[in-house]
Amino acid sequence: MFELDPKLRQDTIPIGGLVLSRLLLMNDATFPWLILVPAEPDIRELHELAQGQQMQLMAEITAISRLMAEIFKPDKINVAALGNVVPQLHVHVIARFRSDAAWPGPVWGKLPAKPYEKAELERMLDAIRSRLAVRIVRDEAV
């Protein structure tokens, strides 16, 4: 049975379910940052997914990257699956700007996380969910 890693559960806000993945918002208002987690038990690496699942994950990464580009108009979209701290397979999709505090370096470890304030979080979730409505295939609690 699939369970979200406790660190991801602690650091993120659930948005919804896609065909393969759970979609999460990193609770850090410094960067627009979404995370896809394939809802498969005990998966640590991309190559552990079946070929069809790998293709589905790439389709979801592409859809979320396009969504981020549409909403935020970033200079660059960073996509990464590191897993050094959280071994469960998860893919970061981060909107980056030449003006952000970590540019051009990675976002990890640059600044402490700045949790969303309630109104800002609601605006962010509304913006994402409204554009995701046509992209979400199953309405499932994360």
Automatic annotation (TrEMBL):
<protein>
    <submittedName>
        <fullName>HIT family hydrolase</fullName>
    </submittedName>
</protein>
<feature type="domain" description="HIT">
    <location>
        <begin position="34"/>
        <end position="103"/>
    </location>
</feature>
<keyword id="KW-0378">Hydrolase</keyword>
<dbReference type="InterPro" id="IPR011146">
    <property type="entry name" value="HIT-like"/>
</dbReference>
<dbReference type="InterPro" id="IPR026026">
    <property type="entry name" value="HIT_Hint"/>
</dbReference>
<dbReference type="GO" id="GO:0016787">
    <property type="term" value="F:hydrolase activity"/>
</dbReference>
<dbReference type="Pfam" id="PF01230">
    <property type="entry name" value="HIT"/>
</dbReference>
<dbReference type="InterPro" id="IPR036265">
    <property type="entry name" value="HIT-like_sf"/>
</dbReference>
